[in-house]
Each structure stands twice: as structure tokens, then as C-alpha cells.
From TrEMBL:
Coiled coil: none annotated. One of its GO terms (molecular function) is pyrroline-5-carboxylate reductase activity. It comes from the Eukaryota. This is Pyrroline-5-carboxylate reductase dimerisation domain-containing protein.
Length: 108
């Protein structure tokens, strides 16, 4: 699907940028924050590809009761991040459909 494969990398870059910006806000240098955010994404992607677990299971494995991760996840849920990713995929999908329809009309 073009929306995921074609647009997904830009969405991942936006997520990495946001994570790095948060780390800079917390005091890391921009260079270190960018490197750590990208390497975190890379490591997570490797686990997702090689594991038979659903992403939610892996997320739950990382989230310890009362720990930093669950607090951060709560904030992401409050901000609707998961829904925003879903909406971004649907917007890209719908745009691809519109472009395909337009191309079909233009080539007739």
C-alpha cells in the first residue's frame, strides 16, 4: 500500500524528530538526541521484524507499572498520537486514490 510504504518513512522521520526534540528539551545535544532517537527506532524496528509478538505486546513488555514508559504512553494517548498516525495513513491513501482517479480520467 502506497500510503504505508511510500509515506510511512516520512511519518517515522516525524516521530524520530519529535522524540529527538523532546530529548533536546530535556537537555541532550541535538546531535546526540537525533542519533539516539534514530537508533532507538532502528532497534525497535529490528525487534518488531524478528519477533512473533504483536507491537502492542512488545509495548506492554517495555511498560513497567508506574514507570516512565507508561507515563509517556499515557501522554501520547491523551494527545491522540495513535489516531493521528491512522488518520495520516488514511489521508495518504485517499490522496493516492484521488490521484489515480485523476490520472485515469486524464488518460482517456
Amino acid at each position: 500500500m502506497c500510503a504505508l510504504i511510500g509515506s510511512g518513512p516520512a511519518f517515522f522521520c516525524t516521530a524520530v524528530e519529535g522524540l529527538a526534540d523532546g530529548a533536546v528539551k530535556a537537555g541532550l545535544s541535538r546531535q546526540l538526541a537525533n542519533t539516539l532517537a534514530a537508533r532507538t527506532m532502528l532497534g525497535c524496528a529490528d525487534v518488531l521484524v524478528t519477533s512473533s509478538k504483536h507491537p502492542a505486546e512488545l509495548k506492554n513488555d517495555i511498560s513497567t507499572p508506574g514507570g516512565t514508559t507508561i507515563y509517556g504512553l499515557h501522554e501520547l494517548e491523551n494527545k491522540g498520537v495513535r489516531g493521528a498516525f491512522m488518520d495520516a495513513i488514511m489521508a495518504a491513501f485517499n490522496r493516492a486514490q484521488t490521484m489515480a482517479d485523476q490520472l485515469a480520467r486524464d488518460t482517456k
